[in-house]
Amino acid sequence: MLDDDRDVLHTARLILKPHFAHVQTESDPGRIPDLLREAHYDVVLLDMNFTPGATDGKEGLYWLRKLRELAPETQVVMNTAYGDIAIAVEAMKEGAIDFLVKPWEKEKLLTTVRNVYELSRARREVAQLKSREQMWQQDLDRPFAEIISQSPAMELVFEAIRKVADTNANVLILGENGTGKELVARAIHRQSGRAAAPFIKVDLGAISETLFESELFGHRKGAFTDAKEDRPGRFELAHGGTLFLDEIGNVSLPLQAKLLTALQSRQVTRVGANHPTSVDIRLICATNQPLYERVEEGAFRQDLLYRINTVELSLPPLRERPEDVPLLVAHYLDLYRRKYQKAEVQLDAAAHEKLLHYAWPGNIRELQHAVERAVIMSEQRLLHPADFLLTGTAAGSATRRARRPEPPPSYHLETLEREAIQKAIEKHRGNLSQAAAELGLGRTTLYRKMEKYGL
Ligand SMILES: Nc1ncnc2c1ncn2[C@@H]1O[C@H](COP(=O)(O)OP(=O)(O)OP(=O)(O)O)[C@@H](O)[C@H]1O
């Protein structure tokens, strides 16, 4: 509160102090710029006249303008004397939010300041939401914002996405678990002309045979015991947008036939209905199964494969894009540091080495979970190799070994020891107690050696 009358300031302080976290009173308006530099004020109560004898309110209006200029989000309430209403109105035109007529009642002062404070908080929230939405919009404008990658292998994928996104072509995304198939499907949708319409995902691996038709094609009320009302299926929900069928390799042959019929005709009939409904969808399918082999085994219909694979995208496993590992580690470290409020957590060099040389059979999802777990469990600022329990299957490492020439044999003791430890950990699938027992070491010694060798 700014007022040249120290009694007024004293009374206001007594009234407001019990209700607000911070109340500041000041008799010299010349200090306004300094005060605003030092702190943020939600509400300022500003007198109209400061010089003895002045009644025209010019000073108040001058400082009001100054306040609006220096702190536009601060709300200003004018303190006016009885009879100053015309000046008060002018002040409102200049951006004051309200005015109080002196001498004010205790209750009047309290309610006014409280209301204005609530309003200023609400306005701040709206501003925050707006900027969040703007950031989100900017994110949408950057096509691959959330797909983190700097590898040539993924650059080819990005290029393919760019080419295919704005066509209506059916896309089949192949790749191991956790390679980002859903992320890519969403990126295609967002860059297509259908971006404003829904992206509907169906996890075909998780839908039971009995619910398949009703989930995908919908049902009429009374079609079966649980059908309490008419319900559209996922195909209809995706009308105008994109339908993403995940785990398409897991669908049984009878259901593949039903899917094929719907995809060929672009029509669906709700369970219990007599007439089909046309749907306009863009289809994206994904699977981690070797679909071509499944066709040869007779487990996947060839005609369905040809219907869904107009364009095929293969996502490389993480072990084939090692350039991405440091980037992903940094990304998820940052994310989980913030989520779990452990801003100080860092990886030591050996832990970095360990993550870099791991085969990541579970791909990005495994990396994400490994980093999250390490951040949650960490008790120190520095994360060591032992904080990352990577229980990669032998298959993962085997693939990696197959891709890289074996180093020449060495009888250097440390090299042999490192190898023995690595093999024991692999053999016991990451169970360090068992690995330590087999190596004839105590657990603490094993940890120490793992750290030394960056395992
Ligand atoms: N390039 C990437 N950058 C950042 N995060 C990624 C990247 N690729 C995948 N992820 C993250 O990894 C997790 C798995 O990705 P996603 O679900 O897209 O994989 P998927 O191949 O569909 O997996 P699944 O086959 O198991 O369904 C998600 O949390 C996703 O956000």
TrEMBL record:
Q: Tell me where in this chain the PTM 4-aspartylphosphate is found.
A: D47
Glycosyltransferase as a keyword of this entry, yes or no, is no
Q: Which Pfam families match?
A: AAA_lid_14, HTH_8, Response_reg, Sigma54_activat
GO biological process annotation, one example? regulation of DNA-templated transcription
Sequence ranges assigned to domain Response regulatory in this UniProt record: 1-117
Indicate the transmembrane segments per the record. Answer: none
Superkingdom of the source?
Bacteria
What SUPFAM superfamilies has UniProt attached to this entry?
A: CheY-like, Homeodomain-like, P-loop containing nucleoside triphosphate hydrolases
For this protein, the record's Gene3D superfamilies field holds:
1.10.8.60, 3.40.50.2300, Homeodomain-like, P-loop containing nucleotide triphosphate hydrolases
GO MF annotation, one: sequence-specific DNA binding
Recorded protein name is DNA-binding transcriptional response regulator, NtrC family, contains REC, AAA-type ATPase, and a Fis-type DNA-binding domains
Membrane as a keyword of this entry, yes or no, is no
Q: Which PANTHER family does UniProt cross-reference here?
A: ALGINATE BIOSYNTHESIS TRANSCRIPTIONAL REGULATORY PROTEIN ALGB, TRANSCRIPTIONAL REGULATORY PROTEIN
Keyword terms, alphabetized = ATP-binding, DNA-binding, Nucleotide-binding, Phosphoprotein, Transcription, Transcription regulation
Protein's organism: Catalinimonas alkaloidigena
Sigma-54 factor interaction domain location is 147-376
